[in-house]
Amino acid sequence: CFMRIDLWLFNVRFYKSRSLAAGAVQGGLVHLNGARVKPAREIKPGDVVSFRRGSVDFECAVLSLPPRRGPAPEAQACYR
Question: Is 41 within 8 Å of 24 (Cβ atoms)?
Fold first, then answer.
């Protein structure tokens, strides 16, 4: 099972909109397994996503792919 990286970032609530997530990926702020990717790149459980929001760097392991943008506790269960 796969999901676009911009959709995953939106669904797990790292960005307020999918277009903001896609813009961050396109701008080089998001890396998948250490490599710069495009917004349509597919991710799967086990991948490592690193990104920057403002001056804060994040790195998280993908645990699951949420089918929709749900409540925060549900979203937090999708990454470590």
Answer: no
> Closest by alpha carbon to 13, among 76, 77, 80?
76
Question: Rounded distance, CA 79 to CA 68, Å?
Answer: 15
| Contact between 57 and 41 (Cβ < 8 Å) | no
Contact assessment for residue 18 and residue 10, using Cβ atoms and an 8 Å cutoff: yes
Q: Could you say which residues of the chain have pLDDT below 70?
A: none
Task: Give residue-wise pLDDT tens across range 62-71.
Answer: 999 999 999 9
> In whole angstroms, what is the distance from residue 35 CA to residue 67 CA?
25
19 three-class SS: helix
> If you compute the radius of gyration of the chain from its CA atoms, what whole number of angstroms results?
11
